[in-house]
Specification:
Helix content is 32%, strand content 26%. With 250 residues, it is of the alpha/beta class. Bound molecules: NADPH dihydro-nicotinamide-adenine-dinucleotide phosphate and ligand LZUJQKHR. Pfam families: DapB_C, DapB_N.
């Protein structure tokens, strides 16, 4: 019989951490061996001989967690938001010193979110106008969402490759940021509303038409197949992987 993969969770008592604990416990081939939240010692991961650590904590603490885990030789699956190019470069530098260790950072683990980002990359080069609306539960700490920031960067790259500049916009007065945040030159609007979980709309506009690509996570269980896939794959995937799409047959 195959050995179980020993999994630890950072942020174990949070909204996502609770889902991950339940999903790992119910999954074939995985064993939940450590549950660490704020104020718990991270050494519990090492003491429990965790092989893979899943981090759903907070953008302010995730880099410190990752430095610790990589130093300890623990593979990581990271859902926490707040990653930009500088952070990813720092992480890649730590991993270069620990060649056997794998870390996957995924802005979004939901299948539909990953597909919608791929569809957006395809559409981006055909439309002069694009804006992103991300909508989340009001307990979310960061805005814009990590998914929206990542999507904006992918769209911007596709637009640049197609020779497209900024979306047309005659605005000269933008009181209190009414036109949203600019991420890689793409406008991103953040809605925080009770009743929501995680949602995103990409609006493309062109000659006499618009195209809307929308994804809705209606329950946090939507993220779990992606998290479990990542846990199983990361043990054989050293180095840094950014995005669940790298593990899917797209
Ligand atoms: N990639 C994806 O698919 C998804 C990503 N996310 C991201 O995951 C992150 C967590 O989201 P969510 O679960 O809703 O947030 P929560 O606030 O519900 O959970 C975060 C948990 O982490 C704990 N925590 C804080 N600091 C530490 C630390 N240093 N070590 C261990 N635990 C710590 C918090 O404790 P305390 O409350 O005491 O501070 C809390 O229990 C966010 O960045 C969010 O954007 C969310 C959903 C999907
Ligand atoms: O905080 C959340 O809930 C989510 N965070 C991630 C993000 O910032 O994109 C992923 C998903 O949108 C849910």
């Amino acid at each position: 019989m195959d050995e179980l993969i020993r999994v630890g969770v950072l942020g174990a008592r949070g909204r996502m951490g609770a889902q991950v604990r339940a999903a790992v416990e119910a999954a074939d081939g995985l064993a939940l061996v450590a549950e660490v939240d704020e104020d718990d010692p991270r050494s519990a991961l090492v003491d429990a001989r965790a092989q893979v650590v899943v981090d759903f904590t907070h953008p302010d603490v995730v880099m410190d967690n990752l430095r610790y885990c990589v130093e300890q030789g623990l593979h990581c699956v990271v859902g926490t938001s707040g990653f930009d190019t500088a952070r990813l470069d720092t992480l890649a530098g730590w991993l270069a010193d620990r060649p056997g260790v794998g870390v996957l950072v995924a802005p979004n683990f939901a299948l539909g979110a990953v597909l919608s980002m791929r569809f957006a990359e395809l559409a981006a080069r055909f439309y002069p106008s694009v804006e992103i609306i991300e909508l989340h539960h009001p307990n979310k700490a960061d805005a814009p969402s990590g998914t929206a920031a990542h999507t904006a960067r992918l769209v911007a790259r596709a637009r640049a490759e197609a020779g497209l500049g900024r979306s047309p916009d005659a605005t000269t007065h933008d009181e209190d940021g009414a036109r949203g945040a600019l991420v890689s030159d793409v406008r991103v609007h953040s809605v925080r509303l009770s009743g929501l979980i995680a949602h995103q709309e990409l609006l493309f506009g062109g000659e006499g038409e618009t195209l809307t690509i929308r994804h809705d996570s209606l329950d946090r269980t939507s993220f779990m197949p992606g998290v479990l896939l990542a846990v199983r794959e990361i043990v054989g995937r050293p180095g840094l992987t950014v995005g669940l799409e790298n593990l899917l047959p797209l």
